[in-house]
Amino acid sequence: MRILIKGGVWKNTEDEILKAAVMKYGLNQWARISSLLTRKSAKQCKARWYEWLDPAIKKTEWTREEDEKLLHLAKLMPTQWRTIAPIVGRTPVQCLERYEKLLDMAAGKETYDPTDDPRRLRPGEIDPNPESKPARPDPIDMDEDEKEMLSEARARLANTKGKKAKRKAREKQLEEARRLATLQKKRELKAAGIEVRERTRRGGAIDYSKEVPFERRAAAGFFDTREEATRTSEMQEDFRPITVDELEGRKRKDIEKELIKADLAKARVAERANAPAALARALAANEASAGPVRRGKLMLPAPAVTDEELEALARGGYAAADRDADVAAGGSAATRGLLGDYATPGRVGGAPTPARGGAAPPGPSRVMQEAANLAALTAGATPLLGGENPVLHPSDFSGVTPRATPAATPGTHALGGTPAATLGTHALGGVAIAATPRGGRVSGGGATPAPVPTPLRDALGLNEAAASASSKREEAARLALLRNDLRAGLAQLPGPRNEYQVVVPELAPAEGAVPDGFFEEDAADAAQRRAAAAEAERCAALRRASQAVQRGLPRPAPDAARALASDPPATTAGGEADALRRASALLGAELAALLAYEAEAFPAKAEKGKGKGAAAAHQAASLPPLEQFASEALASAAQLLAAETAAVRAGTGHAGSTAEEAAAASAAAAADIILLPSTGRFVRGASASAAERAAALGARFDHARHEMEREARRAAKLEARAGLLTAGLAARGGRLAEEAAGATRDLAAAALDLACFGELAAREAEAGPARVAELAALVAAQRAREAALQDRYRAARDAVLDARRPLPQAAA
Questions:
Q1: Range of the domain at 56
Q2: Which intervals carry biased composition (Basic and acidic residues) (predicted)?
Q3: In this predicted model, what pLDDT tens digit does every residue of 577-630 receive, in sequence order?
Q4: pTM
């Protein structure tokens, strides 16, 4: 039985699953999250998140301020790492590990080696706290448990339709079905004439699904809105859209930025125009804005060089002086001029050499002092045993955080020379101006800036000052200063005293040299020239070809031409027959050769296809060239043919025939020629037998049917391709046609409604005044009757009052 102990090193796959599970389940359901990881428990998952995967965890290097704060808080609250961690900004495990490392560094001091840390894991040891260590990369070949865990986690984390979601969806669907059923029932009852009274809300509550809350309905009737339109147009004329920036006004920082940009632009313009005046104005503005300078307290660091070291340096200086004297005595005047004077210390900007060395480096680190104090207290015995207490460095317990140490006053000699070479300067017109340092305040311990590595005593100029530039602006200032120095040095050169003229002799051109005026033709021009030459050659060859090729007429195959050429000529008496036979044979051979050459050199369009053009060109190149004739010979041959044609026409009685008659005769002769399938030769139909003519017609029918089938297949392919390309357009056309038909019907209905309402308006215009007059008459009659009734009522009331007045007198 395999026993699986949860824990161990975390892998990249487990980290990713844990982060995805936290995104889905939150930071409280660690048991559910751990169920996705077969090798980790809920407690380990929670520790892994809060000690490594939480984005709020700081994993950068420890700073000096953090180390001081950690040691100070460890002295105030020993072993309370969960209280110290939020104050420092780290996790408790990080604070504990850093504290132990600082103690080891303080105990070992100079002999401490980070690679020889006793707390480092050795091969074979198990990490007791793997939750705070980086994840191990995934292996290329995962085992089956890891693959199963990964697939299950992917399925569970991707499942957004669990039992609760399904139940909610089912309840929502049932509610919708219930609402639709109720609505259908009400409609059926209403159609049957049964009115269902709806429940009314109590206390005049508003039904937001049926009425608009606090709605003020307009009175029924038509009203004139011209006054409202006039007021609206007046309001729109006075209205102007305004942005938030315009409403709130410009911010002070934006105004200051614009003013600073304007000042910088003016300074650059003034610097280009008059650099010294611009420098003077800049200095004056700086002094005026700075006001009275308050000098801070002078904080001198501890001396870095002891008296013994000074004496050793002095003894070394005397020995060096003796060696220089020996060198000077043994060298020549030129050698002594090249060597620099290193006997006297170099000066910086004309200032005397200070009596002591440069500024001291920072004193002992406060972090190491506090770590040494804690290490001594940890290693010391209890005070109950008596004895001397361990000697500790002075500390401060005035607050929770350590006291800030004042920074030492920086000295200009520690930076390596003039202010122009110091850190944080820029040049204006070739003059260096000190600027505010960018590094912020000097971090605790109080130390002067690091000295410039360039040595001051460099008479041979072996060390360049380029290393002192720490930014692009300082590098540009240094280059500008070098250019100004170069211009000043060149301006101090004396003027020329003599003038020289050099006459260059004329030399013979060397072999292989390029002559003057030589022009190398461009590759594109050469290709165009070759293409033009090839086109001209093709046109010339086409002009030399036969008339059938020039006119694009159909040509017989070379085999058919040879067959026609081999036909025996008509019989003629005597030797004339032999001459005609030989002439016919020569003519047939020449015709066959010409047809074969032109068939290969100028193939017909039907013969061209994929790969046939190159093969035809190769075959044309392999054919023996035809005999070329001069233009005069060709013209003479054309004249002979024309004369012979005219003689043949005159001999046959067709000299006066027209072109239409010749075309008709040619068509009739062509229609009389048939192809014999048995022999594959063309013969005249009059000389063929009935069986041969039937076979020729059958062959023509088969050929026509084959061509028909081939064209049908081609048409089917084209139709399928056209259907594929136009299916969407056809569907869209159908939809547009339906929409157009609907729009046409709507237009017709609207036109009918317009005609009806127009007729109603016309009739209303005719009957309206009559109804108005009738109603006016009724109103007038009603008013007259009301007036009469009022008069009658008034008279009756007066009579009643008059009748009641004498009653009291009669009673008295």
A1: 1-159+362-382+395-402
A2: 110-125
A3: 888 888 888 887 888 788 878 877 777 764 544 445 455 555 555 566 677 777
A4: 0.30
